[in-house]
Design goal:
Elements: H1 8-18, H2 23-33, H3 36-53, H4 58-65, H5 69-81, H6 85-99
Helix pairs in contact: 3-5
Length: 100
């Protein structure tokens, strides 16, 4: 956990996110909380992470997502040296999809 971001406000934000129960609630909450550009940027980063995990190359990721190579590199660093949250989420999504 990055102690630079840990504070009461961040704790409250994460508690709020954990209260969301449906996709519709997520759309409503994030639309109220973030700008459209911020949502698109986060969506792009997780798409880039998934493509990197799936073995896609930078040129393919740029073409499909429009992400800059700098963004792809940052996401790749998170995958390599981060807190392992991306793999955790991808595993949970895959398990949920397998259960459907």
């Amino acid at each position: 956990m990055n102690l630079k971001i840990k504070n009461d406000e961040t704790d409250f934000l994460f508690k709020a996110v954990l209260q969301l129960e449906t996709m519709e609630e997520c759309y409503k909450f994030f639309e109220d909380l973030c700008t459209v550009q911020e949502i698109k940027a986060m969506s792009q980063r997780i798409a880039v992470a998934k493509m990197l995990k799936d073995g896609k190359v930078y040129s393919e990721i740029v073409k499909k997502t429009g992400a800059s190579t700098a963004t792809i590199s940052r996401v790749n660093r998170s995958l390599e040296y981060g807190c392992d949250a991306y793999p955790m989420i991808f595993e949970r999504i895959a398990a949920e999809e397998d259960a459907e």
